[in-house]
Amino acid sequence: MFHLDRQSVCCFAQTLSPKEAMMRIPFRLAVIACAVFAGSIHAADVAPSAQAQIQSVMAQMHQAVAAHDTDRFMTGYLHEPSLVFAIDGKVIHGWDALHAQQLIWWRKGKSDVVYTPQGKTEFMLLAPDVAITTEALKSHRTQPDGKVSDGTLVVTSVWKKLAQGWRIVYAHESWVRPPS
Q: Is the full-model pTM beyond 0.85?
C-alpha cells in the first residue's frame, strides 16, 4: 500500500520550483474539470431532464386529445381546486370545473376536432420544480350546427413538479378563429 505522510508531502512540495508548481496548476484544473464534467454527464443519464419528463406527460395528453378522452387528458392537470385555466375572457377554477367544461367542449368524446401542432413546443425552466410550456396549434372541427370551423390557438401552461410527477397548475388558451 502506498502511503504519504506529512513529511513526504512537504518534502515533495519543496522539491518543486515555484515555476514548476505553477506549470502543474493548469493540468490539475483540467483533471478536476474532467471529473466534474464526467459526473454531470452521468447524472444527466440517470435522471431525465424536466423537459423530457414534461414532454412525456404531454405526449400522453396528446394521445388522449386525439381520442377525445377527457379523463385521460385531464391527468396532466393538478387535481385540486387551486387549478386555474383562462380562456376566451373566462377563468375556470379547479379541476372539477375544468373537467366538466372539457366534456362539453369535446361533446363527451363525440367531437371530431383535430389539433395539429404548429412548430415545436417552447419550454422554459423557471426553477427545478417549475416550468412553462407554450404550444401553437391549428384546429379543425365540425360544429354542432354542421358548419366546419378552423382555428388557431396558443396554449401556455405552468407546470409544477409534485409527488405524482409534473402537473399543469395554471394554463391559458388564446384562440383566433377566421371570420365567418
A: no
